[in-house]
Amino acid sequence: MPRGQKICDNCGTATGPRAHSCKNCGHSFAFKPKSREHKNTKLIKNINWKELEKGDIIKVSGGPYFYHSGEPITMGYRGKFMVERVDDKGIRAWGIGKQSGFAHIYMGKDVQNPDTGVWKVKHKICKLKKKDRQERHEPVPA
To answer: What's the rounded Cα separation, in Å, for the pair 57 and 130?
Structure first.
């Protein structure tokens, strides 16, 4: 089987990995159902981090890194966090789920520490917000 394809259980035809049904016989493929959180949460990408408030939930990636033998080693935070407060260099937040504990998420200017060689780069953040009933396509109770 070629890489990036799946085989139909019904007729054996190779199709693309994201196909919902077989192009030859029309057999439907099974997909993993989306989680309740995924269905009920909206991702807001372009936000001003200085306007975050206590209790906001954010998704974090990127951040500081170190080069070792030409390979970047990431040293930043990843995952979901609940904002405690915002200061002039970043966001102070509590980890949710796998990222438990307190963290300072750096959001300052890109700069390299001459002693350690670590590049301090701002993290990438997205705000997570609960969807409204209309966005989830649920009927409004009468």
So the answer is: 10
Contact indicator for 104, 75 with CB cutoff of 8 Å: no
Give the residue among 65, 69, 52, 75 at the shortest CA–CA distance from 112. 65
CB atoms < 10 A from the CB of 125, how many?
A: 23
Residue boundaries of the structural domains of the chain: 1-31, 36-130
DSSP 60-128: EEE--EEEETTEEEE-S--EEEEEEEE-SSEEEEEEETTS-SEEEEE-S--EE-TTT--EE-PEEEEEE
Query: Residue 98 CA to chain centroid, in angstroms?
Result: 13
Q: Summarize pLDDT for 45-66 with one digit per residue, the tens.
A: 888 999 999 999 999 988 888 8
